[in-house]
Every structure is written in C-alpha cells, then in structure tokens.
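Sequence design from tokenized structure. All designs in this work follow the same two-part layout: the structure record, then the generated sequence. An example of the structure record is given first.
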C-alpha cells in the first residue's frame, strides 16, 4: 500500500509582512520521482526573512518557508531509485538533475530542470503537496523546511552520512555551504590573499572560515554591528571594521588599509550600496568581488564601468557554487572530520512554535543562526 496523507505542524506564511502562524497542514504522499521527508531541524536564513518581508519578486503566499533543513526519508514515490526510507538527507534549493544543459555544462551548479515551477511555489507537475482543509499552500525554494514533513523531488535531496548530527548539518543546507563555497569554489581564493567580507552574519562568518581554509593572509570583516566582531575574529578575521566609524566611504578606507585594495571581496548583506563598496575596494588590475547577498525587487547595482575596465571583476554566486547531490555530502564528511565547526553559528535553538522569535532575533542582530528542533 502506498503512503497516506500526513497531518502535521507547519509554520505558514499567510501573507507578506505578517508573522508565521503554526497550523496543522496536510502533506500528500510523494508522487512519481518524489520523496517525503521528516524534518529534524532547520536553520532560519536571512533569505526566509527577505521573502516574508514581501521584497522577493518570487514570493508567493500562503507558503511554507524554510530552506536550511535536514531530515530523514519517510516515504518514496514511484521511480525513486537513489533514496530509501531511513536515509538522512539535506534538502537542496539548487537541485542537481545531472542531465539538463546547466548540469551538463560543468560550468555551474544552477540546475534548471525544475527552476520554473520551483520559483512559482509548485512541485514539478505544477501542483502543491501541502494543503489546509483542502486549500493549497505553496512550497518555497522547493524545500519548505518550516514543516514537520515536506515533499521534494529526488533531485532536490543530498544523501548524507547517517552519523552526522542533523541539528547541526542543517546549516550546510544553505548558510555555511554558501559562504565557504563562495570563497573556495566561486572565487577560488589563493593562499596569501587579502580578503574583505562585508556582513558578518551566518554567510559572512562562513566566508571567513572559507578564507582561512584557503590560507588568506588578511581577512577584513566589515559590519555595522560590532557585536559580530568577536566571533568573526575567533573564526579567522584578522581585523574588523565598522563603516560608521569613518567619514570616508568604506571602500576608500579599505584601499588605504591594504596598499591599493583587496584581492577578493564578498558582499554578504543584500545591500546594493554595499555591493558597490565591495567592488570598489578591490585592487586595480585583478581584484574580484563576489555578490552573495540577495537584494530586493527593483533594486539595481551600479559603478563606473571604469572600475571594470581597469581590471576589477564583479560576479555572484548561489549556494556557493556547490552541486548539491555530488558535492554537499563531502562538506558533511569534512565537518565530521573536524575541518570546521558548526556549533559556533548556532546562537539559539527553539521549537517550531517559537519560530517568530528566530526572525525577531535576526532583525535585532542578536543571532547568527537560530535552529528549529522538531
Ligand atoms: P544576517 O542577517 O545573519 O547577516 C547580515 C549581516 O549584515 C548582519 O551582521 C548585519 O549587521 C550586517 N549588515 C547589515 N547592513 C550592513 C551594512 N550597511 N554594512 C555592513 N554590515 C551590514 O544574514 P545572512 O543569513 O548571513 O544572509 C546574508 C545575505 O546573504 C542575505 O541577503 C541573504 O539573503 C543572502 N544569502 C544568499 C545566498 C546565496 O546563495 N547567494 C545564500 C544564503 C543567503
Ligand atoms: N527569488 C529572488 C532571488 C533569491 C535568490 O537569489 N536566491 C538564491 C539563494 S538565497 C539562499 O538563502 C539563489 O539560489 N538564487 C538562484 C536561483 O535560481 O534562485 C529573486 O530576486 O527573484
Ligand atoms: Zn539561505
Ligand atoms: Zn540539471
């Protein structure tokens, strides 16, 4: 007999700008090529707050947000060959089908197989697996981890080591992989480099870890909240600066501090003015700036083209350029081998019922990551 519909708790975003509401939802069985998982933990990333704010052009409501989870396979649909009940998995908002033009290019992690439906809050067949009293509730980023159970296509799940603590490795579902991957995979920072990291939240701090692993000699952390500096230094920042303490634009301050600019910079905030500073603090001739932060609908970046003509490079990255199914399990292995820690990031844990506190803590600058334990 096939799996039944499950009734469980989920945090529902009914509309933009409103707190999440804990509801009993119906979660349909997985259909062909799909898997239903029991979430064990999920982090709360700034992108969840971004979409909830109404700034995300792809935001649809009502939806179940959340994209930084880890869980256990509860049931599998017809045709699923790579996963069985009981496997431990991390949901992937960037799937890996292995057969689309993007996957076959070998040049990007941005698999596009299901991107169109995913961006509309739908499963690949154009419908949803969540409902409340029969009314459909949208998915989010193809993951919807703010629910005790969720359904994903098989191509959106990374199978990981059973030994990994799910309440920590959930952070590899977005923040930590994104920051580390941006430095190691996207920018390919070399030993001895000078690096500037703008924004010392979960993403920026992970970029610091990546920069230290890469052997960067100087790692400059930049934030307007000086409470972030202590952890940034513990993780590897060699100096931290607050733009508010200077009269000059922060890019000029950094150029002066670094004999002409940094080799690499990373914008981990989602502020288009800071993106400009991050580009313009790069060294003439070779400095590269990587945009990680997600900016709101209608916002645009600008700089004088001369900045690029004179050799600076501007680029961006999603999920740190990491291919979820083929590469993420190795991040878990490296974590298990002690190459980096995750507990430093987890400033708060709470049950799903208190998820709105996680958003409050983030907005007040008091948390790095809140992790929901199911
Ligand atoms: P966060 O809220 O934890 O951290 C943001 C940090 O930026 C905070 O420490 C805040 O004090 C600092 N900040 C805010 N304004 C600033 C300013 N003007 N100058 C200097 N510092 C400033 O957020 P997070 O979870 O680390 O996410 C950071 C960004 O990365 C968000 O935009 C998020 O949507 C994005 N993100 C992108 C990807 C991707 O794949 N590209 C993945 C995850 C998150
Ligand atoms: N929906 C937004 C864009 C949001 C966005 O850029 N998301 C990142 C991941 S943020 C994770 O915290 C991403 O992966 N982007 C690539 C993609 O295909 O969405 C908008 O502006 O429309
Ligand atoms: Zn995220
Ligand atoms: Zn693909």
């Amino acid at each position: 007999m096939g799996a039944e519909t499950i009734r469980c708790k989920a945090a529902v975003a009914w509309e933009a700008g409103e707190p999440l509401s804990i509801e009993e939802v119906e979660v349909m069985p997985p259909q062909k090529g799909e898997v239903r998982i029991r979430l064990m933990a999920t982090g709360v990333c700034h992108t969840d707050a971004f979409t909830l704010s109404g700034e995300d052009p792809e935001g649809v409501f009502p939806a179940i947000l959340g994209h930084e989870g880890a869980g256990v396979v509860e049931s599998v649909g017809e045709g699923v060959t790579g996963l069985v009940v009981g496997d431990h998995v991390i949901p992937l908002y960037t799937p890996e089908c292995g057969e689309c033009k993007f996957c076959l290019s070998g040049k990007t992690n941005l698999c596009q197989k299901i991107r169109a439906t995913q961006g509309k809050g739908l499963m690949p067949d154009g419908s949803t697996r969540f409902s409340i009293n029969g009314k459909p509730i949208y998915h989010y980023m193809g993951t919807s981890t703010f629910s005790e159970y969720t359904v994903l296509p098989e191509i959106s799940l990374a199978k990981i080591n059973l030994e990994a603590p799910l309440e920590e490795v959930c952070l590899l579902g977005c923040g930590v992989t994104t920051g580390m991957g941006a430095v190691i995979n996207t920018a390919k920072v070399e030993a001895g480099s000078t690096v500037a990291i703008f924004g010392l939240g979960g993403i920026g701090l992970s970029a610091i870890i990546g920069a230290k692993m890469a052997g960067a000699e100087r790692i400059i952390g930049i934030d307007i909240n000086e409470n972030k500096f202590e952890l940034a230094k513990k993780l590897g920042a060699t100096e931290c600066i607050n733009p508010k303490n200077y009269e000059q634009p922060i890019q000029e301050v950094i150029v002066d501090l670094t004999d002409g600019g940094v080799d690499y910079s990373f914008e981990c905030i989602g502020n288009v003015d800071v993106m400009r500073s991050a580009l313009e603090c790069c060294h003439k001739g070779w400095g590269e700036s990587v945009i990680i932060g997600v900016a709101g609908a209608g916002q645009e970046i600008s700089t004088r083209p001369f900045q690029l003509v004179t050799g600076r490079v501007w680029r961006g990255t999603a999920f740190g350029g990491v291919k979820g199914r083929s590469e993420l399990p190795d991040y878990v292995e490296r974590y298990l081998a002690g190459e980096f820690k995750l507990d430093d990031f987890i400033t708060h844990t709470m049950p799903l019922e208190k998820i709105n506190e996680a958003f409050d803590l983030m907005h007040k600058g008091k948390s790095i990551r809140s992790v929901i334990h199911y």
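The chain has a mean pLDDT of 98. We note this feature because it recurs in several other targets discussed in the main text.
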